[in-house]
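Can you please make up a protein's amino acid sequence together with its fold in token form to help me picture the idea?
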Amino acid sequence: MQDEIYDLLVVGAGPTGLACAIEAQKVGMRVVVVDKGCVCNSLFHYPAHMTFFTTPELLEIGGIPFSSTNPKPNRNEALQYYRHVAAYYRLNVRVYHRVERVTGADGAFKVHTLDRFGRSGKIQARKLAIATGYYDLPNYLHIPGESLSKVHHYYFDPHPYFGMDVLVIGGKNSAAIAALELWRSGARVTLVHRESEIHSHVKYWIKPDIENRIKNRDIKAYFLSEVVEINPDTVLIHTPQGRETLKNDFVFAMTGYHPDFEFLERLGVRLEGEDRLPVCDPKTKESNVPGIYLAGVIVAGSRTNEIFIENGRFHGQLIAAALTGK
């Protein structure tokens, strides 16, 4: 119903957003969750064969056990688990609805949405919880040719690149996984990284694998190097030995992602310091805007390696306690 008023509206239907909805529902609140994509949209866009760095129990929400056939669960198991949890709690999740703007104030927010056909809607809620993550906004290179159709900022599956010359930009987990899977699926892979070596935080079972492939020259690597231009059939890179032109069919720019700072600022949330940390009470997760709470990775601003599902999933408990005064 158009005039229905919810106690809490959660923006973002990832694991943290679902956890916020569950905890609020547990204390008797009427909750609705809105997401511009599908349930766990970011997880869905992870590489198809990705394995988590953590164990199943550390990904659990809502007190529902996460059983896996593997010591570390994979992407498909996680998606199945979170679908099961959302169904178990009968969460009111409105997928494919983008939040365009928010009007009103604490106790009487109006959330204006657009669905995938451009139709507008409005949802009223007394409180808001923002759990939008960061995976939807890539860190762009801002170089000539980045807008070409051959350039991708997300890696999903290696099959289409069999027999192709593929360049992977980056030296962290996503770049290492992409490079290895592409090579094993028959692509000719080159990796370019601006640092002197593969990042130390790459998963412990991935790091020696990528390093050995580079050492054996299965994957060609340019360290202390940058891509400066992308063309339809080539890429131009700057290396310590000078500029070099490489034959190229596809580019995967695995250069990281960032939270939607503009959305937070439109809400009135204040961002502070070089890391653009949102003003947020650590005990309640309420921002400087009364009635707007923050959950998950966005709490850490641009320091996206500080909060994961494993710790962000508990933010819902803090928010629910704050909302009930307990």
